[in-house]
Amino acid sequence: MVPETPDPAAERPDDASPKADPAPERPDSPEPSGDSVGTPLVRFEKVCKRFGDTVVLDRLDLDVEAGRHVTLIGPSGSGKTTILRLLMTLTQPDEGRILIDGAPLDARARKTIGMVFQQFNLFPHMRVLRNVTEAPVHVLGMDKDEAAERAKGLLEMVGLGDKLDARPSQLSGGQQQRVAIARALAMRPRVLLLDEVTSALDPELVAGVLDVLRDIARGTDITMVCVTHEMNFARDISDLVVMFDGGRVVESGPPEALFHSPRHERTREFLSAVR
Amino acid sequence: MRTWDWSYTGHVMPDLLRGLLVTVEATALGSLLAFALGLVWALAFRAPTRWVRWPVRAVVEFVRNTPLLVQLFFLFYVLPSAGLTFSPLATGVFGLGLHYSTYTAEVYRAGIDGVPPGQWEAATALSLPRRRVWIAVILPQAIRRVVPALGNYVIAMFKDTPMLAAITVLDMLKQAEEAGAESFRYTEPITVVGLLFVLIAYPTSLLMRALERRLGT
Ligand SMILES: Nc1ncnc2c1ncn2[C@@H]1O[C@H](COP(=O)(O)OP(=O)(O)O)[C@@H](O)[C@H]1O
Ligand SMILES: [Mg+2]
């Protein structure tokens, strides 16, 4: 294992992490940029995923370093959700491996990953506080009072300190999504997966949710893998933006570079379509 | 045609009400058994191994597709010859509960299938243990939406209890029959039995319909 080095410069060359071309590079080979890098927190190694005849991911390689914020963009159906679902073990790869901290993704590693869904998926029969305490108590074995105290803190942070006893159905979509964020954070994840978390919201509710996520991006060292069509948000929080199409990485780079001077026609078309 | 004899009606009422008590008791206990066993079947339908799924499926289909009356006779006349003897009422409750559990199993199955996939996914994303997913997430939502359907089977079971008369349980019908055999007047006791059934079953079914509307689909 390569020893940890001081944080590699924030402005990494855009070929640093995901490999834009399926080069016959060995997964363990050193990064081409020369600055040595520790084991990535998340690594996709030649991952293939098919649904019937549809090849959704075609030998995907993707690394996410600890603490980084990576945004996945690409047209609808390009496999962005599938990548997050694979990481959350909601579906299994047909080929290839997914590694967390260098070890295969298993039930134990899964506990270090949290996910926020497009449709919130709160537990509708539980009150807000219980939605947030359920997993810490029954997965982490946390004491009930301690879990409740922490949950209250998290709910306050997302601006819902006064809704502890509400049912999800009594909340707006934006409020429900903020509960879902608190619920995921309550498990103290190292990696947070965000799948178009504002797509199901009325436009006036989007900003509140994005502000909460900006705070998390700035104020914590949680690694974030994010799928969004909110390009301003992506620019604000991302270290790296990865453009997908046809089951492959088209290109990737820091947000300024990728948004201002995309190298590929497909990226340019996509960006002009969503803006 | 003979006219209705009110004093005779009053005379048989206590026996009929005693029979009603037995009928209600059999329905209540039979329902509890059907609710519990049906849930066991529904969970077994989803067992990871087919060595559980297939036998359970076979038993459930067999029980559902043979008449309740035949099952009651089997339990009442055949089991004792194998050394298993229960009171007629206990045998009747077991027969009703077992038979109706094959219907409630389907009700639960539909309820479980109706829980949105997002709920399973959220539970997985939180790494909730399997037991906890069922107890805290899936079943509360599944059962809530099938309460009216379960209630309708309770009504159906209630109306099937007269079959217990065939295995000598002194339910309402049996009481009416015995009263009639004694005095050669069947009109009053049998009519009252019918009325008592309607009086209980109809309001209950209205209640279930209201509940169904309130819980929404
Ligand atoms: N469970 C599934 N069964 C069949 N096809 C699926 C399933 N999930 C996703 N797909 C297909 O995989 C492709 C990629 O889907 P997805 O990852 O959701 O894309 P994105 O999130 O980028 O829009 C789509 O063509 C979609 O139809
Ligand atoms: Mg998607």
From TrEMBL, chain B:
The gene is ehuD. The lineage of its organism: Bacteria, Bacillati, Actinomycetota, Actinomycetes, Kitasatosporales. Coiled coil: none annotated. It comes from Streptantibioticus parmotrematis. It is found in: Cell membrane. Gene3D superfamilies: MetI-like. Keywords: Amino-acid transport, Cell membrane, Membrane, Transmembrane, Transmembrane helix, Transport. Belongs to the binding-protein-dependent transport system permease family. This is Ectoine/hydroxyectoine ABC transporter permease subunit EhuD. It is a multi-pass membrane protein. InterPro entries: AA_ABC_transptr_permease_3TM, ArtM/GltK/GlnP/TcyL/YhdX-like, Ectoine_EhuD, MetI-like, MetI-like_sf. Pfam families: BPD_transp_1. Residues 20-208 form the ABC transmembrane type-1 domain. The chain crosses the membrane at residues 20-45, 66-86, 190-211. The keyword Transmembrane helix applies.
